[in-house]
Amino acid sequence: MLEGSIVALSTPFTDDGVNEKTLIELFELHNHSGTSAVLIFGTTGESPNIRENERKRMMELAKEHLKIPVIAGAGTNSTEKTIKLAKEAESFGMDYLLVITPYYNKPTQEGLYRHFKAVAEEVSTPIIIYNVPGRTGVNILPETVARLSEFKNIVGIKEASGNLLQMTEIISMTPSDFVLLSGDDMLTLPIISIGGKGVISVTANIAPKEVAELCKLALSGRYEEARKLHERLYYLSKAMFIETNPIPVKTALSMLGYDMGPLRPPLCPMREENREKLKKALKDFGLL
């Protein structure tokens, strides 16, 4: 069962490609920090701006250097394109696929069911549904998730709706081995308390050991210790969203000495006043 701290990895770029040296450094960081798995091509990794040749090379490097499972983002708002990306990721040996609910075109619940069903029938790699209504404009309901959980290779959901009632219903309506993961660092502890199994985390990019420890404490029922660590991580996690993700986390990694390179348009550098707020958060946490 996939559980614990899963990092939604920020992608280091050069002016004309992926910075492979830094990418390998980040892989090695998570190999030795208690991280349970690494997600590449998530929103935090600037997935819309990663070129086809870069995707292939990053998957090669991930399989070569990571000693923990690799999750590849493979979702688009086209079922046909999603299947193409899913098959490609499977051919590179990715351990899991993260497939977002189709964005902008706002399918119905039946449309969502048919989308994920079509992908599940074309690959055998385990699929994690990604629900983030604030970015996609559509919310997959517990009843639809329950229908999809009947497919043997749809194994979990990354839930970023912020709705704990909805998440409780998902847990109660799906099999015991269906995994619900937090999609929001600031809700990791409460989500684990209702039966979630961990987090796909932005904050784990810069504080991997602490996020992994939070999950470990909560999953083992040591809630008082987990609550104290949750409080400590809260303000750092909050700083990761003072501008649109992944702008702050990539800026933070650069501040910590990683050669992350530029953000790709339409993302742009942080405003100076927010850079100062971010720097303060890193200092307060003891990272700078």
- Given helix and strand content, the structural type is alpha/beta
CATH class: Alpha Beta
Strand content is 5-15%
Number of helices: 12
3D architecture notes:
The chain is of the alpha/beta class and 288 residues long. The chain has a single domain, classed as Alpha-Beta Barrel (TIM Barrel), CATH 3.20.20.70. It has 12 helices and 8 strands. Strands 7-6-5-4-3-2-1-8 form an 8-stranded parallel β-sheet. α9 runs antiparallel to α10. The longest helix is centred in the last third of the chain and has 17 residues, at 223-239. The radius of gyration is 18 Å and the shape is globular.
Search tags:
288 residues; TIM Barrel; eight-stranded parallel beta sheet; 8 strands; globular
